[in-house]
Each structure stands twice: as C-alpha cells, then as structure tokens.
Amino acid sequence: MGFEDRDYYRDPEWQPDRGGHSAIRWLIALCIGVFVGQMMDARVTDALALTTRDTLPNWHFWRLLTYAFCHDPSYLGHIVFNMIGLWIFGSVVEDMLGSREFLWFYLTAAFAAALVYIGLQLAIGTPSPMLGASGATMAVLMIFALHFPRQ
Questions:
Q1: Residue 65, SS3 per DSSP
Q2: Strands, E, within 29-117: which ranges?
C-alpha cells in the first residue's frame, strides 16, 4: 500500500501544494526584480518612489503603487525582512482568501499606506521619499493576526 492509496491523502485538504501561492511568488519576484534594477541604476528609485514633491504636483499617480515594489538599495535587510514576512504570513492569508482576492487586498493595502503617508507628509511638511512593501506587509500580518490570534 503506497502513500497515495491512503484515504486521508485523497482528501483535497491533504493534497500537496502543487505550486500554489502564485500571487505571493509574483509579488516577491517583482520586488526582487525592481530591487536589482535599483541597485543597477538609481533612476529606477527616482521614477518609482513615492514623494509628495513629485507625486502630487507632477501627476505621477503611478507612484501610489510602485513605491511598494522598491526597497532601500543600501540596506539588504529592508527587502529581506519584508519578503520573509510576506512569505510566512501571506501564504496562510492567500490560502484563506485565494490568489486573486489576496492580490487585490495587498495592492489596496499598499495604496492605503501611500495615502496615509501623503496625508502625514502634507501635515508635517517634511518631504522624504517612501519606499518598501512594509505597509502592505503589515496589513497582511494584521489580517493573519485577526484570523489566527493564538498563533
């Protein structure tokens, strides 16, 4: 009797993951690709980072999402810890929501974090660029904590 012949193995809940978590893999690959581009040319960061100086007056509204794929090229820990958090907590949340809904949630969280940043920058008045997936990753962590408070 092989492992595949066991009754519990036929249950879809016990089936092995055959390449799932596609949204997370695409997000991580995109972040790493942009990070490599940032390391090769600083203009990538200048074109994608979120700043109140460039975004609002120049109508660069794509920056409300693209900043989330940029990371500080001078500190490797920035991208590493964001992607580890996304992988660990996002895998569970994506299994719960499904890939499409998870992707919409992630992008909406990144957009919401950008709006909060712009509001704070306009209130404080000290413009500094925003980069990184920390806002969206923290939103994923919060969803995980709300659904699994004892883990």
A1: helix
A2: none
130 forms beta bridges with 50
Q: What letter represents residue 44's amino acid?
A: V
Which region, left, alpha or beta, applies to residue 21 given φ > 0 means left and ψ of -120 to 50 means alpha?
Answer: left
Q: What is the mean pLDDT of residues 5-33?
A: 71
* CB atoms closer than 10 angstroms to residue 78: 18
Summarised one tens digit per residue, pLDDT across range 29-79 is: 999 999 999 999 999 999 999 988 777 778 888 999 999 999 999 999 999
Sort residue 41 into left (φ over 0), alpha (ψ -120 to 50) or beta: beta
| pTM, full prediction | 0.83
Lowest mean pLDDT among 8-22, 83-97, 129-143: 8-22
The CATH number given to 17-147 is 1.20.1540.10
> For residue 94, what are its two tokens?
């994506």
Report how far residue 43's alpha carbon sits from residue 82's, in angstroms, rounded to the nearest whole number: 22
Cα Dmax for the chain: 70
Query: 3-class DSSP state for residue 69?
Result: helix
